[in-house]
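Slide 14.
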Amino acid sequence: MPGGRLTQQERQQIALGLADGLAYAEIARRLDRPTSTVTREVMRNGGPTAYRSDLAHRATEHRARRKQPASRDPKAPVRADGRDAEAVREFEEVFTTVLIQSGTPKMMARVMACLCLTDSGSLTASELVQHLQVSPASISKAIAFLDSQGLVRRERDERRRERYVVDDDIWYQSMMASARAALQIVETARQGVGVLGSATPAGARLEGIARFLEFVSESTARAAEQARGILSAKPATTPETTTPETATTETTTPPDGTA
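Slide 15: predicted structure.
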């Protein structure tokens, strides 16, 4: 299996594979590369719909030149958790790109990815500023947006600092917030039907919107409740094992049941 960086020819083959609608795994198989290599390459260079081999190749060369001195620095800090710092950084870029392509604004996506990749699931504003190298105002704006979407929650630590947290329940709360937002559109659309008239094309269109979003909202809320219940359920406890004491008691009890 070839190693090292992708060549320009390989990037052209990736672009052709994307144009043909091939899955990442199939493109990777044809290149004899890991699927993760192709996925990372595409997601950090515009995604499947905007990937261009020439731009991707130039961008990769630029990144390599820019970070080469740092990668050769023997005094470069090593992650305390023992993880490959470069691999983590690259995955953070990929995760951020996926969030952006799903509709999350860029800075909000960067903050969300940063929070999700911490073992604690929480960071302070100053920690986010230091990690992302952006202004406190940018962090404040991003947190306000993520908070409004139900994607982060705020809490105070022992030093009374505000921390921003993502955990398993955040995704449930976010889905429920999305379902409620859809219901608001449903109610507004139905008001429009009353104003425009149900027999008019515009009124019929609004009613169609309301019915569709009502179905989606109810399905989303139901699925979120089911997922929360299933995934948060504790594993069933195993039957109590026989201890030496009980085994002794059982073997010394006479068959007729008398003590």
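Speaker note: The chain is about 65% helix and 5% strand.
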